[in-house]
Amino acid sequence: MISGTSHDGIDVAVVRFERSGSELRGVVEHTAGTPYPVELRARLAAALPPAPTTLAEICELDTLIGQRFADAAAAAVTAVAEVGPPDLIVSHGQTVFHWVDGGHALGTLQIGQPAWIAERTGIPVLSDVRIRDITAGGHGAPLVSMLDTLLLAGLPGPAAALNLGGIANMTVVDGTGDPGAVTAHDIGPANTLVDAVVATDDPDGPGYDADGALAAAGTVDDELLAQLLADPYFALPPPKSTGKEWFNGAYVTAALHRLGRTPATADLVATLTRFTVDSVARDVRASGVRTLLVSGGGCRNPVLLQGLRAALDGTRVLLTDEFGAPADEKEAIAFALVGWCSWHGLPGALPAATGARGPRVLGTLTPGAGPLRLPEPMEAPPATLRLTVGS
């Protein structure tokens, strides 16, 4: 389970993993999306950087989000009752701050107290999955690279997986199967700036550019676009990570102040959408990627997806649905895989992707209703993953 940088709700995937030799087989038994209640989402948005908040508010949000995650977990357990209860629930929770200074990640904070999930379901919960990688010198992101490299295995390289959530991140493999030949990083904003503008313009609306309608109706402001593309973050070498601590509504306000004028909302959304297209396409081209697998909410925006296809002429752009990972729930599937790895004593992140000194088993375990019993650790991770939907 995860609520991403769009902080609009909880994505859930129930995956049944079975290992056969070096291949891991995963059956996606159930997926679901649970929106946050309007009032909770508003409180969360009001507490996120750069807004000031209090420890009391963080404590309350930790409980309220934990309870919503518990509701989503209980519904998922009920939905798969015929195949039996899960061995483990993995809760990424809700990121509220990712501390990066001087190109190095120093800390990260996800809230959504896992004890509520364990109490509600009786199932052990793995949470706080990013911080161990950070303590080993990594960025704690992108953790989806573990799933990406397995999905990309066998494709002629270079091939890449791109996630268009609030932030865009990409994993690139060279096609040799060498885990040390993987690179990954957060590219920059995907939906987060557009969402901030849309939510400000229409507080009672959906909070995003539905079907890319605003972007399609607007005209790109080339001067503003050039200013955005010159952001120093893009000059940093990977691995690197970012989030709403940098790319947020105040970031757009500051950019407009430097511009000295405010474009119409549709023109601003069109420009920010092109900003995502151009920044992503620039990194994809620089990596020489021949096949690009796309997931995340942004791939449902036709202006964004068509813009990428037009900008990446010569690169095959496909949705991860074609590889057994539904594009809207791929991150939830990725954290199910992280949980499977931790449950079997295996590292859940690739040091080549995160920048860590070495592989680490990820997460903190909260026991369920009974004693915590883990299976015997496995000696080596799987080399390939075959995902299917349904039994």
Describe this structure in words.
This protein is an alpha/beta fold and 391 residues long. It has two domains: 9-140 and 331-389, 2-Layer Sandwich (Nucleotidyltransferase, domain 5); 145-323, Nucleotidyltransferase, domain 5. Helix content is 36%, strand content 21%. The protein has helices at 38-47, 55-79, 114-121, 131-135, 145-152, 192-201, 213-217, 222-229, 249-259, 265-286, 302-311, 330-343, 351-354, and strands spanning 9-20, 23-35, 89-90, 94-101, 104-111, 125-127, 159-164, 167-173, 183-189, 291-295, 316-319, 364-366, 384-389. The strands form four sheets. It has a five-stranded mixed beta sheet with strand order 9-8-7-10-11. A three-stranded mixed beta sheet has the order 1-2-13, with helices on both faces. Helix 1 (38-47) crosses helix 2 and helix 6 packs antiparallel against helix 10. It is globular, with a radius of gyration of 20 Å. The mean pLDDT is 94.
Q: What fraction, in percent, of the residue positions are helical?
A: 25-40%
Strand content: 15-25%
Give the domain tally: 2
Output mean pLDDT: 94
Largest sheet: 5 strands, mixed
Question: Poorly predicted ranges (pLDDT <50, ≥5 residues)?
Answer: none
Q: Number of DSSP helices?
A: 13
Encode the helix/strand succession as letters. EEHHEEEHEHHEEEHHHHHEHEHHEE
| Cα-based radius of gyration, to the nearest Å | 20 Å
Q: Classify the fold: give the CATH topology of the largest domain.
A: Nucleotidyltransferase, domain 5
Strand order of the largest sheet: 9-8-7-10-11
Q: CATH-wise, what's the superfamily of the largest domain? A: ATPase, nucleotide binding domain
Q: Which structural class best describes the helix and strand composition?
A: alpha/beta
The total of beta strands comes to 13
What coarse outline follows from CA principal-axis ratios? Answer: globular
CATH architecture of the largest domain: 2-Layer Sandwich
Binding site for ATP: 4-11
GO biological process, one term: amino sugar metabolic process
Catalytic activity: 1,6-anhydro-N-acetyl-beta-muramate + ATP + H2O = N-acetyl-D-muramate 6-phosphate + ADP + H(+)
Organism: Nakamurella flavida
